[in-house]
Each structure stands twice: as structure tokens, then as C-alpha cells.
Amino acid sequence: MHMKLINNYIDHTLLKATATKEDIIQLCNEAKKHNFFSVCINSAFVSLAKQQLKNSQVKICTVIGFPLGAMSTQAKVSEAKFALLDGADEIDMVINLGLLKSKDFDGVWKDIEAVKNNMPNNTLKVILETCYLEDIEIIKASELAIQSGVDFIKTSTGFGTEGATLHDIKLMKSVTKNGVKIKASGGIKDTKTALDYIHLGVERIGTSSGIAIVSGKSSNSND
């Protein structure tokens, strides 16, 4: 099978609370230079990134309900709506983990569906935050997200206790259908690790170590 170049898998990510405008501009310049698929940033910076990337192919991905997923559905919908107006192409939203753990499965999928209904033509990725979930919960969360019409299921925020694992990806892969893709994120810092995920069938890698990954170096970055 023909594999895309590794840079085309990467959402070049900067989500830490202290990221400055200068940091975001640098991120955008790096994404253009290395031809990454997208930049992934907090929603306050979407319009700045839009400006920086206007003559490039690089997409803008933003996060909503991040990183806990525990805000009201209305807040998530509103955040998504304004991020799209500012120029976001893709949205990574965090699932409501508390509702999942309460076995309020209707609440979980309605939360996701409410966001997806507002962005029928844009890519929605749902972050499961697998580090807090039992295997059975990973499977259930994946199924609920897929049922809600998402485009991707994603492992992690990068702010939990652990990031992606090959085990969790295999569980997610076992239930994916309807063309839903998988994004691995959290702790992916070198070329070998990225390729391990890609060989498992992951379609996108979220990382702040994209430059190290495409240049074959390892990175000390902690996302």
C-alpha cells in the first residue's frame, strides 16, 4: 500500500496554557516549513493562525471542551461554533468522561452529536482520554463516538496521566467502522513510535515533536 509521507500525518501541536502569540506564529511557520497536515492550538489563537497560514495548505485544528471534557454541552457547541467562524478546519473535542463513567451513555453521545450537528462539513475528532478508561470503557466510548457521526476517535489530550498506547489503539481499531479514522496523541516523540502507530492503521498523529519525528531525532518535548 502507498503510505503518505510521515509529515502528512502530523497535527503540529501546541496546547500548553502559557503558549504566547509568538509561539503560535513560530508553530505556524514550522508547519509551513515541514508541510505538516495541520497546527493544533487552543481556540483563542485560531484567527491568528488563520492569518499566518492563509497562503498555505496547512489546516487549522483546534480543541474544545479541553482538556477535561466536563463542561456543559452548550459550552462545547458554542466554543466549536466560534472556532469555526474564526477559521478552524477541524475540531478535537473531549468526551464527557464523568457521564461515561456514570454509564449515562445517552448523555455521552448527545454531547458529541450536538457538536457534530453544528459542523457537518468539518472534521470532528473525539478525544477519549484513554488513560482514565478501562478496556471496556475504551470500546464503549469509541462506539458512542462513532454512533454520533464523528470523523476520528483520538486517544488523548496530552494532559492526562498517559498518552497513546499500542494496546489502546488496537482496542479502538477493533470497533471502528463507517470510515471513522484514528488519531494517536500523547507521548509520541520519535520517528519509530510514530511509524509503529501508522503501521497499526492510525491516520493522524498529534504531537509537539513533529520536527523531531520528520527529521529522525528524538525530542525532549513533554506533549
TrEMBL record:
Keywords: Cytoplasm, Lyase, Schiff base
InterPro entries the record matches: Aldolase_TIM, DeoC, DeoC/FbaB/LacD_aldolase, DeoC_typeI
Subcellular localization, as worded in the UniProt entry: Cytoplasm
Superkingdom assignment: Bacteria
Pathway where it operates: Carbohydrate degradation; 2-deoxy-D-ribose 1-phosphate degradation; D-glyceraldehyde 3-phosphate and acetaldehyde from 2-deoxy-alpha-D-ribose 1-phosphate: step 2/2
CDD domains xref list: DeoC
Enzyme Commission number: 4.1.2.4
Role noted for this protein: Catalyzes a reversible aldol reaction between acetaldehyde and D-glyceraldehyde 3-phosphate to generate 2-deoxy-D-ribose 5-phosphate.
UniProt cross-references to NCBIfam families, sorted A to Z: deoC
Family per record: Belongs to the DeoC/FbaB aldolase family. DeoC type 1 subfamily.
Protein name from the UniProt record: Deoxyribose-phosphate aldolase
Originating species: Flaviramulus aquimarinus
